[in-house]
Give the backbone structure.
Amino acid sequence: MENNFIGKKTKNDERYTPAILVKPILEYIPKGSTVWCPFDLENSEFVIALKEHGCKVIYSHINTGQDFFKYEPKEHYDYIVSNPPFSCKLNVLE
């Protein structure tokens, strides 16, 4: 399937997940895991909370030239955790 959303964003895509919604996820991620946050910047609540939880975090964002559909970290990661852009959520899940 061709992805028509690559590199495209809508005005509704940039919604930040508050810490109160990130914290419950931490119980499912073992401390010491490496987590890729593919839709996040350094100051994302996901990145901050996962680091505080004792995880190694790899983060990337389309604004820094790392499009999820074209980019994958070279480093090994155990989990992908993030809140994908609404406009392409089905493509992300695919």
Q: What stands out?
A: Confidence is low (pLDDT under 50) at residues 1-7. The first strand starts at residue 34 and ends at 37. The first helix runs from residue 19 to 22.
